[in-house]
Write a structure and sequence with these properties.
mainly alpha, globular
Length: about 425
Amino acid sequence: MEGLDTALIAAIGVSLVVWGLVSARLAALNVSAPMFFVVLGLVLANDPVSAIKVDIDSETLKSLAEVTLALLLFSDAARINRQVLRHDAGVPLRLLVVGLPLTIALGTGLAVLLFPDLDPWAAAAIAAAVAPTDAALGAQVVDDEHVPRRIRRALNVESGLNDGIATPFVTFFIAGAVANTVSNSSATLGASLGDLTIGVLTGVGIGLAAGLLMTWSATHGWSSPTYRGIATLAAALAAYALGIELGGNGFIAAFVGGLAFGTVVPGRDRDPTLEFDAQSGEFLSLVVWFLFGAAVLPALDNVTGQTVVFAVLALTVARLVPVALVLIGCRFSPVTVAFMGWFGPRGLASVVFALIAFDSLDGSTADVVIAAITLTVLLSVVAHGLTAAPLSRRYGEYVAASEQNTPEQVPVPTLGGRAQAAGHGAAPAPVPELDE
């Protein structure tokens, strides 16, 4: 079949099989799924092996990464159980509503200082792209029952929703960077706001319609449970694709669609209907990590000393300081604050944002942006992957040895979620992210 890269497909297929066979053993060695697939893609695509070839500007890579993120945005947002979340909404809301914008602001300041020749809009785009966290890179944190459930849930809720919240920031900042290269900047920025509005409206329409129709169909016995998951996956794809077709932002459409879907689908039905969507997204995410590893070296050609400093500060100062500020008043111990601040791994969303920025920007600006985002993600894959299990164990021991009834130990509903299914060979959790 002309145009079908069978070598690449074979490499991906074999890699997935190998991971399925040895994932638990590698997890014991603190090797996460993103680490495994990035390294494997890197080895197979470069000398001396050079068995496959993937370009960083490949339309296939960009399209697959975007669809994967859309599926995960929909399923993560749809899992929100507002009744359960009310039991302890304060910590996740602090991290999302205040902590994320603070992280973007601090990251922007660092990027402006370290890349003085870079347009401030592009610097802000870098900061927004590396701000959202991905629990799949630190799955052992939210899997480890030694870590208090309240802390695990807060980190998982944050990582499940901040991708969608960061998307408007990234979109607007990239539009601002592009606007400086054209004559009518107000039109470009105005268009980005219009895109976001169309995405919101499309997502609300698709999510509500799909959720209401699916609930009615299930209630009246019209639909088979076997195919409800496929219908949910289709709804996520429809929200994303229709949002783009109508001239809007597909990611916002998928994210808002998931929120709307989860609002009208009863909790007892949400788990089975979302399981297939979540598993499909996780499968594709592993493929994206493999392709990212295969294409990463050219993206690092423009790494400088300033890029390294930015990546390190983005993973530490730009995350730790905002988390410490927003948790003031929660009465958490300094150890807990540091633990939550450190486990903010950057993942799939940042990869997608990097590809979008590279596709939208030109020349040296695009090179600096993609180098900064790529290096930050790579460092996060390694650092958070290696430290997740040992630091979780040590933190769990610290909490167990502390006084009882501390704020960290306040009981909250059972936690499931995407991170548990994503990284270490465990079967996907049978419960939604915030459902019991």
